[in-house]
From TrEMBL:
Start and end residues of each GP-PDE domain: 5-248
Keywords: Hydrolase
GO molecular function ontology, one term from the record: glycerophosphodiester phosphodiesterase activity
Protein's UniProt keywords contain Hydrolase: yes
Species annotation: Herminiimonas glaciei
The keyword Amino-acid biosynthesis belongs to this UniProt entry's keyword annotation: no
Gene3D superfamilies linked: Phosphatidylinositol (PI) phosphodiesterase
Record-listed E.C. numbers: 3.1.4.46
CDD domains: GDPD_EcUgpQ_like
Protein name, UniProt field: Glycerophosphodiester phosphodiesterase
Pfam families: GDPD (PF03009)
Length: 260
């Protein structure tokens, strides 16, 4: 049913590298992760770039909004220095650069469409179109071979659906809304992606019984990870790629049953 990896490195490398950079993707890979989540928004000139906050100040020094700068200007900004001296000079990457890195290394992508407020439709459309172009010559058409587009923005996902109906979508929510089922159907979404903090076993069962994937963010505690997997959650992303490995939750097949 869930054709994607179960454990996904959040923002590339979780807490071990500056989020949403190529260094983060490399870090995830070094820790054995062949599945990443990252955030995409548009520059002033409509180029998808990989960044979480629409404003500078946290991961990029200074003040300003992503929507007021061209891709050329953004990719000259440092997105690594805030994290540590080892990452000084690590730039804001474009979506194309990150996707190229992931495709080159066979890393599955959960592409979170994270529009700068006011640019929901446009971002959903552009990111979905770009994704479609990247995968149109992929010979493997099985569901797990394609990335998953997710967003908190219903409008962005509607635009993505129009732009690239064949690229799978997930509706991303903090708290599961009462009309979750209608919304998933309206979007033709295959999965509900939700904050594990508000999930209950009852909700998890309802989503699974309705035939959808169920994915959680951001699970950083081993006991909690085991708990939600036992509820039927299909997968989750984690910042603690040092604690929760890519094979977490898998049966250790090499150990004989008598030794378990
Ligand atoms: O895609 C899951 C998760 O990344 C959503 O929250 O704020 O970390 O992008 P955020
Ligand atoms: Mg995200």
């Amino acid at each position: 049913m869930w054709p994607y990896p179960k454990i996904v490195a959040h923002r590339g490398g979780g807490v071990l590298a500056p989020e949403n950079t190529i260094a983060a993707m490399r870090c995830g890979l070094t820790h054995g992760f062949y599945a990443v989540e990252f955030d995409v928004m548009l520059s002033k000139d409509g180029v998808p770039i990989v960044m979480h906050d629409p404003d500078f100040g946290r991961t990029v020094e200074g003040a300003g909004n992503v929507a007021d700068f061209s891709a050329q200007e953004l990719t000259e900004r440092d997105a690594g220095a805030w994290f540590g001296v080892d990452f000084i000079g690590e730039p804001i990457p474009t979506f194309e650069q990150v996707a190229h890195f992931c495709n080159h290394h066979n890393i599955w992508m959960n592409i979170e469409i994270k529009p700068v407020p006011g640019y929901e439709d446009r971002t959903g459309w552009v990111v979905a179109q770009a994704t479609k172009r990247m995968f149109e010559h992929t010979l493997d058409r099985s569901p797990g071979a394609l990335p998953l587009l997710s967003s908190f923005s219903f409008e962005a996902l509607q635009a993505a659906q129009l732009a690239a109906p064949d690229i799978p979508r997930a509706f991303l929510v903090d708290e599961v809304p009462p009309d979750w089922h209608e919304r998933l159907l309206a979007l033709g979404a295959i999965s509900l992606n939700t904050n594990h903090k508000h999930l209950t076993p009852l909700l998890a069962r309802a989503v699974k019984e309705a035939g959808f994937g169920l994915f959680c963010y951001t699970v950083n505690d081993v006991a909690r990870a085991k708990e939600i997997l036992a509820w039927g959650v299909d997968g989750f992303c984690t910042d603690r790629i040092d604690l929760i490995g890519p094979h977490f939750g898998e049966e250790p097949a090499h150990i004989s049953p008598s030794l378990r």
